[in-house]
Structure formats: structure tokens, C-alpha cells
Amino acid sequence: MDLTSYAELAVLLVNSGDALDSPDGARRLLVEAGRADQAERLTRADLQTLRDLRHELIAVFAAAARHDEQSAVDRLNALLIRHPVHPQISRHDGQRWHLHLTEGGRLSDEYAAGAIMGLTALVTELGVDRLGLCQADRCERGYLDTSSNRSRRYCSERCASRANVAAYRARRRDLSGAARRA
Fold first, then answer.
1. Which of 19, 90, 113, 159 allows an S-S link to 29, with CB 3.0 to 4.6 Å?
2. pTM of the model as a whole
3. What 3-state DSSP class applies to 66?
């Protein structure tokens, strides 16, 4: 079972923006998460549960970004209690038998179980410092750092590029200002 793909569900939810403002937006999010088959089962209760979960997951990522490991772990433990994980053995699409998390119940419960278990596995295997919030100005999107040297600081190449260009321009301004004063 690839728990990183489950952890990506958490990142997708954290970064969902206004997608959870409407059932149609939530359905598009589910399709993006590779759960198109579940999108039609979405209820208003699921939508509210996903909104609440998003806020709780943002708090986990924020604690990790502050290097507050204990708070991040405490929050994950609380989520594991609130959203129990029910693993099941499954086989589909010509694959071998493998483990899936929650194949039944409400859609939001399935999504929550996968996202929370994925983050939990990632944190216990790789460390809390593998969760983060983008360090680009005015961006608060979450990310998983799966790099070998734990160097990720931005949610995307776009934010990394913007931050690097802004830093370059700031250095040039500082240098030209210093040259004028000299």
C-alpha cells in the first residue's frame, strides 16, 4: 500500500481553497483526487465534514511548519480517534491483493481515513519535518517533502520560481542602492 498517495489526499484537501464552497467544487476535488467513483455519493454532511477536516489538517501542517512536532502528532492522534481507520484487503484492476483504507461508510469518512492514515504513516516513517507550508509570500499551501535531502520549502515549482526571482530582484536593488551611496 502506497501511503504517500494517501497522504497526498491530505495535501489536496489542505490546498482545496474554495472548492469546498459548493457540492460541485467538492466533486471536482474528488475527481482530482482520483475518486471520481465516489463523487456522486457526496452529501451535504460529507461536505461539512470535509470542510472541518481541512481546517484540522491545516493546523497539523502549521504545527509542522513551526517545528512543533508534539502539537502536530497530538493533532494527528486526535484525528485518528475521531476518524477510525478500517483497513480492508482488496483486489481490483488486475492488481494483486493489497490493503485499502475504508471501503464502506460515508464518503467523507473514507477520505478522512485515507488522508489521516497517510499523514500518520509519513510522519512515523519520515518525520514531522516532511510536512510544511509554502514559504513563498502570500502562499499558505501545504506540501509533503519527499525529497532525499529534506530541502523542499515551496508548494510548487511556480512558488519556488517566484520566490527566487523576488530574492534576486531584492539583491539587485540592494546592490544598486549600495553602489549609488558609494
1. 19
2. 0.84
3. coil
Tens of pLDDT along 62-84? 999 999 999 999 999 999 999 88
CATH number, position 128: 1.10.3300.10
Domain tally, the chain: 1
Q: Which residues contact 131 (CB under 8 A, 6 or more apart)?
A: 60, 61, 64, 65, 72, 119, 122, 123, 142, 143, 144, 145
Distance spanning both ends of the chain, measured CA to CA? 62
Range of the domain at 16: 3-181
Distance, C-alpha 97 to centroid of its chain: 27
- Helices marked H in the chain — which ranges? 3-14, 23-32, 36-39, 44-65, 69-82, 107-126, 157-181
Cβ atoms < 10 Å from Cβ of 44:
8
